[in-house]
Protein backbone atom coordinates (compact mmCIF):
# COMPACT_ATOMS: atom_id res chain seq x y z
CA UNK A 1 0.00 0.00 0.00
CA UNK A 2 1.26 3.45 -0.92
CA UNK A 3 1.54 5.74 2.08
CA UNK A 4 -0.34 9.00 1.64
CA UNK A 5 2.46 11.14 3.06
CA UNK A 6 5.13 10.06 0.57
CA UNK A 7 5.51 13.55 -0.89
CA UNK A 8 9.28 13.41 -1.22
CA UNK A 9 9.38 10.15 -3.14
CA UNK A 10 10.34 10.20 -6.78
CA UNK A 11 7.43 10.48 -9.19
CA UNK A 12 8.75 7.46 -11.07
CA UNK A 13 8.83 5.25 -7.99
CA UNK A 14 5.38 6.47 -6.98
CA UNK A 15 4.09 5.62 -10.44
CA UNK A 16 5.58 2.12 -10.26
CA UNK A 17 3.97 1.65 -6.84
CA UNK A 18 0.55 2.12 -8.48
CA UNK A 19 1.15 -0.70 -11.00
CA UNK A 20 -0.42 -3.53 -8.92
CA UNK A 21 -3.80 -1.79 -9.06
CA UNK A 22 -3.89 -2.53 -12.79
CA UNK A 23 -1.75 -5.66 -13.18
CA UNK A 24 -3.48 -7.86 -10.59
CA UNK A 25 -6.95 -7.50 -12.05
CA UNK A 26 -5.77 -7.04 -15.63
CA UNK A 27 -3.88 -10.33 -15.41
CA UNK A 28 -7.04 -12.24 -14.56
CA UNK A 29 -9.00 -10.73 -17.46
CA UNK A 30 -6.19 -11.23 -19.98
CA UNK A 31 -5.54 -14.87 -19.04
CA UNK A 32 -9.23 -15.79 -19.19
CA UNK A 33 -9.70 -14.03 -22.53
CA UNK A 34 -6.70 -15.85 -24.01
CA UNK A 35 -8.03 -19.17 -22.72
CA UNK A 36 -11.47 -18.57 -24.23
CA UNK A 37 -9.86 -17.79 -27.58
CA UNK A 38 -7.80 -21.02 -27.34
CA UNK A 39 -10.49 -23.40 -26.09
CA UNK A 40 -10.36 -25.53 -29.29
CA UNK A 41 -6.60 -25.94 -28.93
CA UNK A 42 -7.14 -27.03 -25.35
CA UNK A 43 -9.41 -29.93 -26.34
CA UNK A 44 -7.03 -31.10 -29.08
CA UNK A 45 -4.11 -30.84 -26.65
CA UNK A 46 -5.96 -32.93 -24.10
CA UNK A 47 -6.67 -35.67 -26.66
CA UNK A 48 -3.06 -35.64 -27.87
CA UNK A 49 -1.69 -35.96 -24.33
CA UNK A 50 -3.87 -38.98 -23.58
CA UNK A 51 -2.87 -40.59 -26.89
CA UNK A 52 0.84 -40.19 -26.18
CA UNK A 53 0.40 -41.49 -22.64
CA UNK A 54 -1.41 -44.56 -23.95
CA UNK A 55 1.41 -45.28 -26.44
CA UNK A 56 4.12 -44.93 -23.80
CA UNK A 57 2.18 -46.94 -21.21
CA UNK A 58 0.58 -49.95 -22.88
CA UNK A 59 -0.32 -51.37 -19.48
CA UNK A 60 -3.76 -50.00 -18.56
CA UNK A 61 -2.96 -50.04 -14.84
CA UNK A 62 0.16 -47.91 -15.35
CA UNK A 63 -1.78 -45.54 -17.58
CA UNK A 64 -4.55 -45.19 -15.01
CA UNK A 65 -2.02 -44.61 -12.24
CA UNK A 66 -0.30 -41.83 -14.19
CA UNK A 67 -3.58 -40.17 -15.15
CA UNK A 68 -4.70 -40.22 -11.53
CA UNK A 69 -1.37 -38.68 -10.51
CA UNK A 70 -1.73 -35.85 -13.02
CA UNK A 71 -5.30 -35.28 -11.87
CA UNK A 72 -4.16 -35.08 -8.24
CA UNK A 73 -1.44 -32.61 -9.17
CA UNK A 74 -3.98 -30.45 -11.00
CA UNK A 75 -6.35 -30.50 -8.02
CA UNK A 76 -3.60 -29.69 -5.52
CA UNK A 77 -2.15 -26.87 -7.59
CA UNK A 78 -5.58 -25.44 -8.33
CA UNK A 79 -6.61 -25.52 -4.68
CA UNK A 80 -3.28 -24.09 -3.51
CA UNK A 81 -3.46 -21.13 -5.90
CA UNK A 82 -7.02 -20.29 -4.78
CA UNK A 83 -6.14 -20.58 -1.09
CA UNK A 84 -3.01 -18.43 -1.42
CA UNK A 85 -4.78 -15.68 -3.33
CA UNK A 86 -7.70 -15.73 -0.89
CA UNK A 87 -5.26 -15.32 2.00
CA UNK A 88 -3.59 -12.43 0.18
CA UNK A 89 -6.92 -10.73 -0.59
CA UNK A 90 -8.13 -11.11 2.99
CA UNK A 91 -4.84 -9.77 4.36
CA UNK A 92 -5.20 -6.69 2.16
CA UNK A 93 -8.73 -6.12 3.41
CA UNK A 94 -7.74 -6.62 7.05
CA UNK A 95 -4.78 -4.25 6.68
CA UNK A 96 -7.03 -1.62 5.13
CA UNK A 97 -9.52 -1.87 8.01
CA UNK A 98 -6.81 -1.87 10.68
CA UNK A 99 -4.95 1.11 9.22
CA UNK A 100 -8.23 3.01 8.94
CA UNK A 101 -8.86 2.32 12.63
CA UNK A 102 -5.32 3.27 13.65
CA UNK A 103 -5.37 6.58 11.78
CA UNK A 104 -8.74 7.47 13.28
CA UNK A 105 -10.85 10.38 12.09
CA UNK A 106 -9.31 12.79 9.62
CA UNK A 107 -7.51 15.91 10.73
CA UNK A 108 -9.25 19.27 10.56
CA UNK A 109 -8.03 20.33 7.11
CA UNK A 110 -9.68 20.74 3.76
CA UNK A 111 -8.11 17.67 2.09
CA UNK A 112 -8.98 15.29 4.90
CA UNK A 113 -12.48 16.73 5.21
CA UNK A 114 -13.07 16.34 1.48
CA UNK A 115 -11.82 12.73 1.61
CA UNK A 116 -14.07 11.91 4.56
CA UNK A 117 -17.04 13.51 2.82
CA UNK A 118 -16.36 11.48 -0.33
CA UNK A 119 -16.15 8.21 1.63
CA UNK A 120 -19.41 8.95 3.41
CA UNK A 121 -21.19 9.63 0.13
CA UNK A 122 -19.66 6.50 -1.37
CA UNK A 123 -20.94 4.38 1.51
CA UNK A 124 -24.45 5.70 0.84
CA UNK A 125 -24.27 4.96 -2.89
CA UNK A 126 -22.49 1.60 -2.68
CA UNK A 127 -23.75 -0.71 0.11
CA UNK A 128 -21.24 -2.65 2.18
CA UNK A 129 -22.69 -5.91 0.88
CA UNK A 130 -21.89 -4.91 -2.69
CA UNK A 131 -18.32 -4.10 -1.70
CA UNK A 132 -17.93 -7.55 -0.13
CA UNK A 133 -19.42 -9.12 -3.25
CA UNK A 134 -16.87 -7.27 -5.38
CA UNK A 135 -14.10 -8.70 -3.21
CA UNK A 136 -15.50 -12.18 -3.76
CA UNK A 137 -15.73 -11.51 -7.49
CA UNK A 138 -12.09 -10.43 -7.60
CA UNK A 139 -11.00 -13.57 -5.76
CA UNK A 140 -13.10 -15.77 -8.07
CA UNK A 141 -11.82 -14.08 -11.22
CA UNK A 142 -8.17 -14.38 -10.22
CA UNK A 143 -8.74 -17.94 -9.01
CA UNK A 144 -10.18 -18.91 -12.39
CA UNK A 145 -7.17 -17.42 -14.16
CA UNK A 146 -4.91 -19.44 -11.87
CA UNK A 147 -6.75 -22.61 -12.94
CA UNK A 148 -5.80 -21.83 -16.54
CA UNK A 149 -2.18 -21.49 -15.43
CA UNK A 150 -2.52 -24.78 -13.56
CA UNK A 151 -3.69 -26.50 -16.77
CA UNK A 152 -0.57 -25.35 -18.59
CA UNK A 153 1.66 -26.47 -15.73
CA UNK A 154 0.06 -29.95 -15.61
CA UNK A 155 0.49 -30.29 -19.37
CA UNK A 156 4.16 -29.36 -18.86
CA UNK A 157 4.44 -32.10 -16.24
CA UNK A 158 2.99 -34.56 -18.75
CA UNK A 159 5.44 -33.40 -21.41
CA UNK A 160 8.33 -33.92 -19.02
CA UNK A 161 7.04 -37.42 -18.24
CA UNK A 162 6.91 -38.24 -21.97
CA UNK A 163 10.47 -37.03 -22.46
CA UNK A 164 11.68 -38.94 -19.43
CA UNK A 165 10.02 -42.18 -20.63
CA UNK A 166 11.63 -41.81 -24.06
CA UNK A 167 15.02 -41.08 -22.51
CA UNK A 168 14.71 -44.14 -20.31
CA UNK A 169 13.98 -46.23 -23.41
CA UNK A 170 17.23 -44.98 -24.96
CA UNK A 171 19.12 -45.77 -21.75
CA UNK A 172 17.69 -49.30 -21.56
CA UNK A 173 18.70 -49.90 -25.17
CA UNK A 174 22.24 -48.77 -24.40
CA UNK A 175 22.44 -51.14 -21.41
CA UNK A 176 21.09 -54.01 -23.50
CA UNK A 177 23.81 -53.48 -26.14
CA UNK A 178 26.57 -53.27 -23.55
CA UNK A 179 25.33 -56.54 -21.98
CA UNK A 180 25.55 -58.49 -25.22
CA UNK A 181 27.95 -61.43 -24.67
CA UNK A 182 31.49 -60.77 -25.97
CA UNK A 183 30.65 -57.12 -26.63
CA UNK A 184 33.08 -54.40 -25.50
CA UNK A 185 35.99 -56.85 -25.59
CA UNK A 186 39.20 -56.92 -27.58
CA UNK A 187 37.52 -59.32 -30.06
CA UNK A 188 34.44 -57.17 -30.56
CA UNK A 189 35.60 -56.32 -34.09
CA UNK A 190 35.08 -59.97 -35.00
CA UNK A 191 31.39 -59.77 -33.93
CA UNK A 192 28.76 -58.87 -36.47
CA UNK A 193 25.14 -58.01 -35.90
CA UNK A 194 22.96 -61.04 -36.32
CA UNK A 195 19.87 -60.37 -38.41
CA UNK A 196 17.37 -60.79 -35.55
CA UNK A 197 19.45 -58.58 -33.23
CA UNK A 198 19.89 -55.93 -35.89
CA UNK A 199 16.20 -55.90 -36.77
CA UNK A 200 15.27 -55.70 -33.11
CA UNK A 201 17.62 -52.74 -32.56
CA UNK A 202 16.32 -50.95 -35.66
CA UNK A 203 12.72 -51.47 -34.58
CA UNK A 204 13.43 -50.10 -31.11
CA UNK A 205 15.25 -47.07 -32.51
CA UNK A 206 12.43 -46.39 -34.97
CA UNK A 207 9.91 -46.48 -32.12
CA UNK A 208 12.03 -44.01 -30.17
CA UNK A 209 12.30 -41.73 -33.19
CA UNK A 210 8.55 -41.85 -33.84
CA UNK A 211 7.76 -41.12 -30.20
CA UNK A 212 10.24 -38.28 -30.22
CA UNK A 213 8.52 -36.75 -33.24
CA UNK A 214 5.14 -37.07 -31.53
CA UNK A 215 6.54 -35.45 -28.38
CA UNK A 216 7.95 -32.56 -30.41
CA UNK A 217 4.53 -32.03 -31.99
CA UNK A 218 2.93 -32.09 -28.56
CA UNK A 219 5.43 -29.47 -27.35
CA UNK A 220 4.56 -27.28 -30.35
CA UNK A 221 0.84 -27.64 -29.59
CA UNK A 222 1.45 -26.80 -25.93
CA UNK A 223 3.39 -23.70 -26.91
CA UNK A 224 0.59 -22.63 -29.24
CA UNK A 225 -1.90 -22.99 -26.38
CA UNK A 226 0.12 -21.71 -23.42
CA UNK A 227 2.79 -19.32 -24.68
CA UNK A 228 0.64 -16.15 -24.47
CA UNK A 229 -0.83 -17.20 -21.13
CA UNK A 230 2.61 -17.96 -19.71
CA UNK A 231 4.04 -14.70 -21.01
CA UNK A 232 1.18 -12.60 -19.61
CA UNK A 233 1.37 -14.28 -16.21
CA UNK A 234 5.13 -14.01 -15.91
CA UNK A 235 5.39 -10.39 -17.05
CA UNK A 236 2.36 -9.07 -15.13
CA UNK A 237 3.32 -10.90 -11.95
CA UNK A 238 6.82 -9.49 -12.23
CA UNK A 239 5.37 -6.00 -12.74
CA UNK A 240 3.24 -6.51 -9.63
CA UNK A 241 6.36 -7.44 -7.66
CA UNK A 242 8.06 -4.25 -8.86
CA UNK A 243 5.04 -2.24 -7.73
CA UNK A 244 5.07 -3.67 -4.23
CA UNK A 245 8.84 -3.26 -4.01
CA UNK A 246 8.40 0.42 -4.86
CA UNK A 247 5.61 0.75 -2.28
CA UNK A 248 7.82 -0.90 0.34
CA UNK A 249 10.72 1.45 -0.40
CA UNK A 250 8.46 4.50 -0.17
CA UNK A 251 6.96 3.29 3.10
CA UNK A 252 10.44 2.83 4.60
CA UNK A 253 11.05 6.56 4.27
CA UNK A 254 7.96 7.49 6.30
CA UNK A 255 6.25 6.62 9.52
CA UNK A 256 4.24 3.77 8.07
CA UNK A 257 2.51 1.42 10.47
CA UNK A 258 3.99 -2.03 10.85
CA UNK A 259 1.05 -3.98 9.42
CA UNK A 260 1.23 -2.05 6.13
CA UNK A 261 4.96 -2.81 5.88
CA UNK A 262 4.32 -6.50 6.59
CA UNK A 263 1.53 -6.60 4.01
CA UNK A 264 3.85 -5.17 1.33
CA UNK A 265 6.46 -7.81 2.18
CA UNK A 266 3.89 -10.61 2.01
CA UNK A 267 2.62 -9.32 -1.34
CA UNK A 268 6.15 -9.42 -2.74
CA UNK A 269 6.61 -13.00 -1.52
CA UNK A 270 3.29 -14.15 -2.98
CA UNK A 271 3.83 -12.69 -6.45
CA UNK A 272 7.49 -13.71 -6.63
CA UNK A 273 6.22 -17.22 -5.97
CA UNK A 274 3.62 -16.88 -8.74
CA UNK A 275 6.20 -15.72 -11.30
CA UNK A 276 8.95 -18.21 -10.38
CA UNK A 277 8.14 -21.19 -8.14
CA UNK A 278 4.71 -21.84 -9.67
CA UNK A 279 6.21 -21.81 -13.18
CA UNK A 280 9.27 -23.95 -12.42
CA UNK A 281 7.77 -27.14 -13.99
CA UNK A 282 8.10 -25.36 -17.34
CA UNK A 283 11.87 -25.18 -16.83
CA UNK A 284 12.02 -28.85 -15.85
CA UNK A 285 10.79 -29.73 -19.35
CA UNK A 286 13.83 -28.04 -20.86
CA UNK A 287 16.18 -29.82 -18.43
CA UNK A 288 14.77 -33.23 -19.40
CA UNK A 289 14.85 -32.43 -23.12
CA UNK A 290 18.50 -31.43 -22.93
CA UNK A 291 19.47 -34.92 -21.73
CA UNK A 292 17.97 -36.61 -24.82
CA UNK A 293 20.85 -35.58 -27.07
CA UNK A 294 23.43 -36.85 -24.59
CA UNK A 295 21.66 -40.19 -24.17
CA UNK A 296 21.40 -40.66 -27.95
CA UNK A 297 25.09 -39.84 -28.29
CA UNK A 298 26.01 -42.34 -25.58
CA UNK A 299 23.93 -44.99 -27.38
CA UNK A 300 25.71 -44.22 -30.65
CA UNK A 301 29.11 -44.54 -28.93
CA UNK A 302 28.02 -47.85 -27.35
CA UNK A 303 26.96 -49.25 -30.74
CA UNK A 304 30.22 -48.14 -32.35
CA UNK A 305 32.33 -49.48 -29.48
CA UNK A 306 30.60 -52.82 -29.26
CA UNK A 307 30.33 -53.28 -33.03
CA UNK A 308 33.09 -51.20 -34.66
CA UNK A 309 32.65 -52.91 -38.04
CA UNK A 310 29.11 -51.57 -38.38
CA UNK A 311 29.25 -48.95 -41.21
CA UNK A 312 28.65 -45.36 -40.16
CA UNK A 313 26.15 -44.98 -42.99
CA UNK A 314 24.11 -47.96 -41.83
CA UNK A 315 20.46 -47.61 -40.95
CA UNK A 316 21.21 -47.88 -37.24
CA UNK A 317 23.61 -44.93 -37.25
CA UNK A 318 21.32 -42.91 -39.51
CA UNK A 319 18.44 -43.29 -37.06
CA UNK A 320 20.71 -42.34 -34.17
CA UNK A 321 21.83 -39.25 -36.09
CA UNK A 322 18.18 -38.32 -36.69
CA UNK A 323 17.44 -38.63 -32.97
CA UNK A 324 20.45 -36.50 -32.03
CA UNK A 325 19.68 -33.91 -34.70
CA UNK A 326 16.05 -33.56 -33.56
CA UNK A 327 17.15 -33.15 -29.95
CA UNK A 328 19.54 -30.26 -30.47
CA UNK A 329 19.58 -27.35 -28.03
CA UNK A 330 16.25 -25.50 -27.65
CA UNK A 331 14.48 -28.05 -29.85
CA UNK A 332 12.00 -28.74 -27.04
CA UNK A 333 11.45 -25.74 -24.80
CA UNK A 334 8.31 -24.02 -23.56
CA UNK A 335 8.17 -20.38 -24.60
CA UNK A 336 6.37 -17.22 -23.63
CA UNK A 337 4.93 -15.27 -26.57
CA UNK A 338 7.57 -16.86 -28.81
CA UNK A 339 10.60 -14.91 -27.57
CA UNK A 340 11.30 -15.92 -23.95
CA UNK A 341 12.26 -19.46 -22.99
CA UNK A 342 11.06 -20.83 -19.68
CA UNK A 343 14.35 -22.17 -18.35
CA UNK A 344 16.18 -21.98 -15.02
CA UNK A 345 18.31 -18.99 -16.16
CA UNK A 346 15.11 -17.05 -16.92
CA UNK A 347 13.78 -17.49 -13.38
CA UNK A 348 17.20 -16.75 -11.89
CA UNK A 349 17.32 -13.61 -14.02
CA UNK A 350 13.83 -12.67 -12.85
CA UNK A 351 14.90 -12.73 -9.21
CA UNK A 352 18.12 -10.86 -10.04
CA UNK A 353 16.17 -8.22 -11.94
CA UNK A 354 13.82 -7.74 -9.00
CA UNK A 355 16.74 -7.25 -6.62
CA UNK A 356 18.42 -4.84 -9.04
CA UNK A 357 15.23 -2.84 -9.40
CA UNK A 358 14.85 -2.58 -5.63
CA UNK A 359 18.38 -1.14 -5.36
CA UNK A 360 17.76 1.36 -8.18
CA UNK A 361 14.38 2.40 -6.79
CA UNK A 362 15.88 2.88 -3.33
CA UNK A 363 18.69 5.06 -4.72
CA UNK A 364 16.23 7.15 -6.73
CA UNK A 365 14.04 7.68 -3.68
CA UNK A 366 16.99 8.58 -1.46
CA UNK A 367 18.35 11.06 -4.00
CA UNK A 368 14.91 12.63 -4.42
CA UNK A 369 14.52 12.99 -0.66
CA UNK A 370 18.00 14.55 -0.35
CA UNK A 371 17.22 17.08 -3.06
CA UNK A 372 13.91 17.94 -1.40
CA UNK A 373 15.55 18.42 2.02
CA UNK A 374 18.27 20.64 0.57
CA UNK A 375 15.77 22.83 -1.21
TrEMBL record:
Superkingdom field: Eukaryota
Keywords, ordered alphabetically: Membrane, Transmembrane, Transmembrane helix
Residue spans crossing the bilayer: 12-36, 77-102, 139-163, 265-286, 346-365
Protein name: Gustatory receptor
Organismal lineage: Eukaryota, Metazoa, Ecdysozoa, Tardigrada, Eutardigrada
Amino acid sequence: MLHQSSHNASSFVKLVACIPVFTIYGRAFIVLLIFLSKRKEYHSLQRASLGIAASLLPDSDDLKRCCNGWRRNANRLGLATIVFHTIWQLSNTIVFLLTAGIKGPPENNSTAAATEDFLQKLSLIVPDGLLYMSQGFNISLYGLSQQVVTLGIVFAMMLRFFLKANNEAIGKLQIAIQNIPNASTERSHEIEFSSPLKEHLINDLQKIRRKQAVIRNFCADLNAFFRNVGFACHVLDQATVMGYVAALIISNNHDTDLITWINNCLSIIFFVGYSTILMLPLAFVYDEAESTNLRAYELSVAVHRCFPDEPLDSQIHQILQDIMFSSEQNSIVLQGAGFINFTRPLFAGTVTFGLSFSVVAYEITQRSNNISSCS
